[in-house]
Model the fold of this input.
Amino acid sequence: MIEIIVMAALWLIVIALSLGVARRSFPLLHESAKSGATEFIYLVPRMAIGMLGSGFIAAALPNDTVAYWLGSSSGISGIGLAMVAGAMTPGGPVVGFAIAAAALKGGAGAPQIIAYTTAWALYAFPRLLTYELPMMPARVVWLRVLASIPLPFIAAWLAMLIGKP
Amino acid sequence: MDPAAPSPRRRRRGPIDWPTAILIVLVVTAAVYVLWRDGSARFLEVIGEDSSLFLWMMPNVLAGCLIAALVTVLLPRDTVVRWVGKEAGFKGILISAGVGIIVPGGPYTIYPIAAAFLGMGADAAAVITLITSWTTIGLSRSLVWELPFLGFDFVLWRWVGALPLGVLAGLIVRAIERHWRMKAKP
Done:
């Protein structure tokens, strides 16, 4: 259900933008549609590899071990480990949250889980390879990776500062 | 638009680039491991699940690419430069962080848009803020995917803690760039 809403919203945006461009000129609309389609064709094989691959990487990941290592007693080193685990977890919308939920149920510490989901959101190495590097200038990607290193720690620390509701 | 002029978004691309090559190696390794550990039934199950997910995503990916292409045409270049260009400073970073919260869709929408903005003269720090804010506190992702798994209390708590991350990433990028410039001219 929610997938259909997202898809409908995206295509409504496409239609609205197309109307905006068409009001200016039709050749311009044709030109930008062609440019968007070219980008799409370039992405499709990469996405096919990336998404099939994410499934296998997720299946190969030892979820119980990940959950175990994120235990609440693991402290700062646990947060560091959570970062590495998060970065290695494949992208896609659910894998990271599913592991985080399992780990929370299994008694993992909240700061570790926050560091884990943040690192996953920031890095998700397979997503980086599937989407980001093919589409963005490499210099900007590495700048982003570099600038993101302290962020999982800061997120965990801030969450602790606020205190769990 | 002059068709002979090189589009700012498109770089020279071979049929296969090294990120894709690394990905293929990773995927083949994981696939062989799953086949060896869990047998062919589980192997086929993974392929089936991911193929249907892949087919479901296709229309969204096309929509994302079209949105980026159309936005490039519609948004005047000087507006982008004025809002999120180098000169926009901290304001540009704040605007990007806000935009990142509301951009819908997945990586298939944010990266084309980010690349288009870069091509139109947006500042690298602002674009990185956009991506960081989208991945860490993007509403569509939190509401659709995170909430069912982790529950409202946890999500809200994490969300508030992550709120400044996008802006921080932008400021760190600025600091790194300044450092590099200082080193470049002794």
Observations:
- Residues 26-60 of chain A form the longest helix (35 residues).
- Chain A touches chain B through 86 residues (CB under 8 Å).
